[in-house]
Structure formats: structure tokens, C-alpha cells
What does this fold into?
Amino acid sequence: MKYVDEYRDPDRVRKIAAGIAGMATRPWTIMEVCGGQTHSIVRFGLDELLPRTVELVHGPGCPVCVTPLELIDKALAIAARPDVIFCSFGDMLRVPGSHADLFSVKARGGDVRILYSPLDALKVALENPERQVVFFAVGFETTAPANALAVVQAQRAGLKNFSLLVSHVRVPPAIEAILSSKENRVQGFLAAGHVCTVMGYEEYFDLCRRFRTPIVVTGFEPVDILQGISLCVQQLEQGRHAVENQYSRVVRREGSLEGRALIEQVFEVTDRAWRGIGIIPNSGYRVAPSFASFDAEQRFDVGEIRAEECADCLSGLVLQGVKKPTQCPAFGGRCTPETPLGATMVSTEGACAAYYQYKRHQSEATP
Amino acid sequence: MTSSDDFNLKCPVPIDDQERIGLAHGGGGRAMNRLLERLIVPAFDNPHLAARHDGAVLDLGTARIAMSTDSYVVRPMFFPGGDIGKLAVYGTANDVAMCGARPRYLSVGLVLEEGTPIATLERVVESIRTAAARAGVQIVTGDTKVVDRGKGDQIFINTTGVGSIEHERSILPSSVRPGDAVLLSGDIGRHGMAIMAVREGLAFESEIESDCAPLAGMVLGMLEDGIDVHCLRDCTRGGVVSALVEIAQAAHCDIQIEECAVPVRADVAAACEIFGLDPLYVANEGRFVAFVPADQADRALAILRRDPAGADAALLGLVGKSGHGRVTLRSALSTTRILDMLNGEQLPRIC
It folds into this structure.
């Protein structure tokens, strides 16, 4: 498969891994921000190819995992209404709220549909004028332009039955929160290639300079990830800190100007709670006042819903890279993909689920 | 029945955390297996059911037969490479074949929704007729019910198959031995991706056609050639991984497969990339895994490859010496990862 095979080429991968091993003279801790990268790392076993000195910790970049419980409960309340068709990306359906998930709302008669694009939800709204169609707008900056476009098109079409339940999060404030934490041990970042495809990487220069930390914009295939790590280790070994772009075949410095314009038009920056972490200032988007009628939270009056996280779940520490999934006492026992205590066990991009699926034997071997 | 038996009736264990049936309970993964283990198998407690094979092998005194049943609710009903009728014949005949039996007779039960066009039913019945002829089975009994409009979805089909067993072998997970070769009868993922492409309205450069095909010819070919077949399983819902994990757990053995050995057509691999799915978990309707002694693997592969559906048959891997019921995959990068059964359907990822 062109554009995929060459980035999974075993010889190339091994060569880069050997280069990293030859370069790393001291222990380094690098965080991959994006859940897609975490998934690739464990799926391809890339961490097994690295020298012991280079440790990867998995960041908060799985949008499913960081969507706060409260918002899931709001989604469940809206989806259960008989007048609503609730549309979502597939992997949100299994995320547990306080008492249920979207699958069980569906089993009880709620009209919950898996879609691939918010624009498909617009189509559903056009075809069902007597019902309210809500799209669960989850994701980092990557998915924000398409969601914004859906709102713009809905407005243009004069649709009164379409709205977004927004849970958008932004990467740079999360990196800042991690670097500012007293417990932080991350020395370099692999920034998420898809997010930068939309946003570019100008936002990272300031973070890199203030925290004297290398940030390498990185893709998702094995060759990409190892090259990202290699660039990061090289900087650390040389005592440098810079923003570099490994994923230059896709990412431009300024990102997608059209995408950014759509985000700015429809959304505004807001403080947002991250599941397991808490509120991070300026770390999310909400629907801007000029598009308020497309905001499901306002349309359905779910503002009063509050929720408590499960106390036994360490997902917050996992998402900040402080703990590995296998260091959680509930991992693989009380917490499995069937009975997840936290969202990191639900999404395939979640670090706990990825470890459970691909690396469970390591925790079994060292009880 | 003694009085103590009367008071010993087992109450089926309630399904722990789920109060209602969800789609995952029919997905062929862990949720479905748990439902079977906790509710169905204990309720009808008997050794045939407990064997948890694709079908039951029954000793009638003078003859051994295999029996299996399956229901078909696929949407869309017509898809590239097949339709619900063809699936209803091959699916059940294949389950019978996985017991090492020659599929002979099939029942067909139709649940029709009021208002379904007769022409649609005619098309499906014609497809059943053609498929039965190709699979060498006769439709010998059946049933037709009509439900109110809105209480069904045009046509649902149940088929039950009976086949004759013409050898003494017991083809079961418990017959799997350390060192056995694990063979896969052809390239994977085509059926699931064909259905998905139609459902999602995606057009690829080349149309992906379902792999829907009868498998008995290949199975009987191996048996007639004297291959000491230990276990067979078709790789339907949940794909190759679910079939392997089910066998590994039932046989208490470990299985290691090689990623490079898994045959996947380039267009199927590309479609899986687009949807974010792993072909190893995607449904097939004309593929099976066979466990045979390693020294007979080449001979068995040659037999499989003689069949049009077996052209890409491959040696996937081996059964390990010790057994925790675990399936692992050695990647092209020589790293190892666990292949686990999914909880429900594979869900497309956000980004």
C-alpha cells in the first residue's frame, strides 16, 4: 500500500532504532501526545525496539479518554430523549458515563447512530426535519474544522434541528499543564501530526522556549514515530531545544489556513475539564455566541448535570505520563475493556486499552 | 427425574453488568461468549453444547452426524459477491463442514416483514437454490412466518444443517496438539469490508467482493487425502483472531502467528486503513483456520490451494508447547503483541 508500506518498512525501522540506541547515552523520557501514536507504538511494539535508556510515556491525546464524565452524562441525557437522533463517532459509544454508556441508551430505545463525519449528521437532520439531530463533537483540533463546517452549512441551509455537543480540546495548553506540573518528568515531546496538520506548529515555539523542551511534530507510522524519537533524543543529547517537523510530508508551519478560519468562525477558546486531570485553562473550544442556537448544551438544558469520577481509577496519572497503565492496581483485574473504570480503558487509543490488548503479558509476568 | 433434580434446577446466571441485550452480545466477541457461558450453555447443560464448536457432532448409533444452525440478518441484503440467501446456505453448511462433516441437508426458516416486495423474496430464494446446488446440500424442510410491518427488516433467515461424518477423527479444540501448524484457507477481510463499503457508501477503485464461499470441498479434500486434521473453525464474526482465541482458550494452548504470513489483498488492507480497522478482526464468510500436524502442513496447503476459495491459503503459525490460551502475533518488525478477542464490534476511531 503506497504511502503506508514505506513507513512500515522493517529495515528502515530497525536502522532508525539502531541509530537511537547509538545516540542515547543517558536516560530520556519522551511523551507522545497523541493517542493515535500510542496505539501505533503498542500495536507495532516500537517501544521494544528502543534502548532501555529511552522511555516513552503516553500523553493525554486520546479525545475519547479525556472527555469529562459530566459531558458523557450530558450526552446520555440528550441521547435518551425521544425527539433526538444522537450521532457520534463509533468509539464514544462504549465510554462509560456515571451509570450507562451510549450503547445501553441505544438498547433502551434511544436513536443513537455511528457516523464517520459531522456532515453525515447534517444529512440526517435534513432527512428528519421533525427530530432534533445532535452530533457529539469530540476531538482535538483535528476534528474541529469539519464540525465547524457542519455548523456553517447548517446555518446556511436554515436548519433548526441540528446542534453540536462540543467537547473539543486543544493540545498546546495540555502540554503546558504537563510541563508546569511538579510531578512532570517529560523531557521531550512528540507533537501530534494530525493536530498540526490543521493548526500548524507556530504555537509550540513559545512552549519550547519557555520550558526549554524539544518538541518534534511527528506522524503515526513506525518510521515516523522512530524518526520523531530520534530527532528528540538528538536534541536532548546535544542540550538543545527546538521545534522540529518530522511530518513535513503533511504538516506545514502555518497548518491549514482554511481549517483554522473555520474554527475561529464557529468556536471560541474556553477553559475545559479533562477527564482524570481537571480543568486546564484555555484548553478547549465551545460554540461561539453567534452560533449559540447550534449548541446542544444550550438547546437541551443539561447544564446542571454534575458527575464524580471513580476514585480507584488512575487514568489521570496515566494521561499525564506519571504512571504506566500496568502500575494501576485495577489494571486487568477490576478494570478491563468490558468493565472499564476509566475512559483510558475504553477507546482503542486509550493507553490502558492499548496495553490491555497488546501488552497484558508484561503485567502478568511481573505481578 | 428424582425429586432432588427438581429442586436442583439451575437458575441461569443473570448477565452481570448489562440489563439489556446490546449489539455487542451478537458481535462474536467477548460479550457474546460471556452471554453464552453464563446463560445459554448452563441452561441447556449437555456435553454437545459444552464442546462449544461451530456445530454439534451426534452419535446416532449407526451413524455420526454433525448439526448446526445459524440465523442471517445481514444488511444490506444484497452486496458485492453475495446476498443474504447465499450467506444462509454457505454459512450453515460451512459450520457443518467445520465438524469434519459432509453437509447434506438444510432447513430454511423465513421471517418476512409485511410489505416486503415478493420480487425481493424471489431473488433471495433463487440465490438459496443456486448456492445449495453449489454446496451440494438439499433444502428438505422449512418454515415461513410474517411479522407486522416495522417488527422485522424485510427478510431474516434461519438455516439448520445436517451433515454426515465419514471418518473416525474427532475434530475439536481438545484435539489440538503442541507443534500443530495453523493454516488459513485464504486472504482475509473481504466480506466485512465489502459490507462496510456498501453501508457507508464508499466507492473504492476496485470493488471489494465478499469472500462468501462453500468450504466443505477443502475440508473433505484434506480428510480424504489422509491429513490428520485436529481442529477447524471458520473465521466469521470477529475474524481470524476470534476463531484462534476461541480455540486457544478451549484447547488450553498458546498460538503464535506471523504477521507477514497473513494474506490480505491490497485493496482490503487499504479499506481497513481508511476505516481504522484491523483485518485480523474483520468478518469473513469463506475462510477457515485448520490445525494439522506440522509435517503434513505442505500437503494440506496444496489441497487447499486446489480450491478457488483456497488459492491464497497460507501457513499462519504454530501451536506452542505450553498453554495459557493466548494468541500472539510476531510483527514484521519482530516485535510481539497479544491478539485478544474484541468486546463487541470493532469501532471506527475518531481520528
Summary: Residues 55 and 142 of chain B are 19 Å apart (CA to CA). Residues 118-135 of chain B form the longest helix (18 residues). The mean pLDDT of chain B is 89.
